[in-house]
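ingest -> validate -> predict -> emit
validate: passed (alphabet ok, no gaps, 130 aa)
predict: started
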Amino acid sequence: MLSVGLTLFCLRYIIQEKHWSDRPAQISFWSLNLGLAWMVFATLFPLGIIQLYHSINVSYYDARMLKYIGGRTNKILEWFRLPGDIVFILDGILPIPYICFLGLRHMGANVTAEQSTQGLFEIVQKTEID
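emit:
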C-alpha cells in the first residue's frame, strides 16, 4: 500500500492536469482499505483469537504446530478472506496500471511552475578577519 501511495503521488505530478482524473485513484484507495479491513476482521482477527485461546488452554507449542494451523477450523476461516482479496486485487491494484499508462501517454514536458536559474545552494567563502 505504501508503494501504491508513492506511485499515485508521483504520477499526480507527472500527468498533465487536463488528463488527470481522481476517480481511479479514489477507487484504488477505498478498495485497498476496504479489502484490507475485510481480510483483518473476517480472517486474521478471528484466527488470532482462536489461536490465543488454544495456546492458553493447551500449550503455546501446540498452537504453533502445523497440525493445528492446517486444521479444519483454520481452513474454513481462511476462505472467508477471499472476498477481501478480490476487492483488494481487482479494484485496488488494477486501477494503478491504468493510471501508469496515462502517465506514460500524457507525460508533461514541463510540469513545474517555473524553472529556477539559481542553484539550490549558494557557496559563500569566509574570509578571516584579523
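The longest helix spans residues 22-57.
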